[in-house]
Structures are given as structure tokens and as C-alpha cells.
Amino acid sequence: MTTATAADQTETARVALEEVCSGRDLDGIPRVYHPDFVDHVNRLEYRGHAGARQSVGLYLALFPDLRFVVHDQVSEGDQVVSRWTLHGTHRGREVEMRGIVISRFKDGRIVEDWAASDTFELVRQLGLRRTMMLALTRRKLLSGTSGTSDGKPSVTRRVVDRALCRFRRNRACPIPPSETERVRKIQDKAAAGYDRQMNFFDRVLFSGGREWACAHARGDALEIAVGTGRNLEHYPPEVKLSAIEFSTKMLAIARDRAAELGREVDLQEGDAQALDFADQSFDSVVITLALCTIPDDRKAVREALRVLRPGGQLILLEHVRSPLLPIRAIQRLVEPLTIRFEADHLTREPLDYLTEEGFAVDQVERLRLGWVERVIARKPA
Is residue 88 part of a domain? Predict the structure, then answer.
């Protein structure tokens, strides 16, 4: 039997991605894949030629115009490492996803693939609403994690990480940032499309919520995590408003919005977990749809208590853990994805700790099957 050269293996790996995996030549599966082929895709495993078809079908179901483009390849022994970009359209939205695959050869054909992809970027492009819908049907495809029960990286993950380091594209190579910095980066990336995305959720889930929250503000008010400033137009004119946001890109949009509205507001870059304000500085603190993403939400509430004057109010609009089992089950199913890709905790519930942190809860409203919660809590006099 003739032994395949490194050039032959590299070409076969390229054809496998650009022709077979793109769906243009599914009949070519036996030519490039060994009968004992095993495909490791994130957490999934597919075996044999039938498994190869199923693996390709997984992506074709999401992207009918699927196309892989190979950029770099490295060959060593019986393995070829290929860096690729996926191009496709999902329900009218064009996306790109980058990834890497290690192909092991036997008798001139690929007998094993280990693939890892930049699913973070894919989810960012799809948006939260599409991701949540996909998570119900394609959860494992979007889950880019792979590990063992003891929390250590799996053998597959370690192999992929070593290969990614060779291309200087491994996220695991640098020391991981703090959770606060991770959330900041997520918010910065999301800033440009945040308003477009929130238009849907404000209409479907939180209708009237921002107006309700701002209408209860009084005196010297502080908004924590102002985001792009979607609340600014709803505050009563007599409220003296300050606001903080730790995403610089979102803060820039909020400043532009304040200028367009002619709203006088002291906008500052700041961290909800360590407010740069003196004790007892405000009569009201407003937080809307932010405790779900602040890394330490209890610490943020503790800081709100500190800066409130006695008798001052904390006004919350949040999506929370639903008391209804079917809704809660969906939240728990989707939450690992939203935490990873959006830093969004779907099952947090401020009522779990507001009293422990020193607040007296005066008002609670539950809406949208218990998914949405409006709370007014008071700092005791």
C-alpha cells in the first residue's frame, strides 16, 4: 500500500473541509474519510461515513449555503492541522465562524477529527434571541466547552489547545481575565447592536417596565449600569440624575443619547460593585436589566444600600427565575449558554437576598409568567 505524503494529507484535509463539509460533495465522504472515522465536534461524537454525513448535516441545517474556507495548514506525521472560516446564512442573517480541526490519517484517509470553533463569535452575530431559540434544538452545537466531570479539560480539549497555540489563536494561552473584565469585553462587543436587540425584548418581555422604573425615581437619583441610555428619556425632569456604566462603548452611546434628548445627567464610567460615591448620596437608585450581568449582583445591591440615604428607594426591573416549572426548566436549559456568551444569568432572583442585605421590600410585581419582576425596596430610616 502506498503511503500518503504530507502534501497528499494536507490536500485531502482541505478537500474534506471545502468540498465535503461544505455540502458540495457528500458523495466524496468515502474518498476522504476512513470507514472507522470518528469526528469530535465540541461535545459531540460522530462515527463512520454515516456519522460524517450527520456531522455535515448538523451545520447544513443551520446554514443552507454553508461554505468552509481553509486559511492555514500544518502537517506533522499522520496529522494535519487546518484553520478555517465558516461562512453561512441563518434565516437571512449572514455569519462567519472561525475554527480549527486536527485531522489524523490512516491509509491515506482521515480516521479522526478534533474540531473546535469560535462559538462566542457565532452567538454574538446571531444575537441573543436567535441563540435562545437555537439552544432549544441545537444546544450541543453551540456549546463550545468540553471537559471531564472533575472540571479538568478533556484530552480532546488539551490537544486542540496545543494546536491553537501554534497558530497563536488560543484563548486559553493568556491568563484568563477576571469575570468583571470578561463582562466588560462582552458588553463592549455588544454595544453597537444592543439597542436593536433590546427593541425586541422591550416590546415582548419588558413593555412599560422602563417607564415604570424611572417614574418612581425621585430627588437625587443614581442609575447603575445605564448601558446605552435607554432609560434617559423616561425620567421625570425634576430628578437630578447621575448614572454609571463600565462598558466604555455603551457609555459613549449613552452620552450621545443624553445630548440628543437634552437631558442633563452626570454620566460616569464606573463599576456597580465598587461605586465611586460617598455614603448616603442618593434618594433613589435605579437598576434595570443589569443585576443579571453584574458578576457579583449581591455586592452591587450592597453598594446601592450604602449610597442611599435613609428612607431611599432601590427600584429594580429584572428578568428573574420563574416560579412556573416549565418556564424555569427552559431558563435552566438555556442559562449555560447565556452566561458564557452574554454573561446573562437567567435564574437570578434579587428577592433571595434583598432583605438579608438590609432592604425592606415594599412592592413586588410579577409579569410574563413570572419571568419579569418589578421591585421597590427601601433602606430603613
Answer: yes
Taking each helix axis as running N to C, give the angle between helix 325-342 and helix 119-126, from 0 to 180 degrees, rounded to the nearest 10.
Answer: 120
**What is the C-alpha separation between 19 and 28, in angstroms, rounded?**
8
Query: Edge-to-edge, what's the strand order for the sheet holding 109-117?
Result: 44-47, 33-41, 109-117, 93-106, 79-90, 67-76
Contacts of 206 (CB under 8 A, 6+ apart): 289, 317, 319, 372
Residues of the chain short of pLDDT 70, as ranges, are 1-3, 41-44, 118-124, 127-177
Q: In terms of domains, do 137 and 262 share one?
A: no
Query: Any long-range contacts for 232-236 (C-beta under 8 Å, 24+ apart)?
Result: 232/257, 232/258, 232/261, 232/263, 232/265, 233/261, 233/263, 234/210, 235/263
Give the global pTM. Answer: 0.58
Domain span at residue 17 reads 6-166
- Determine the Cα–Cα distance for residues 181 and 178; give it in Å rounded to an integer: 5
Quote the pLDDT of residue 142: 45
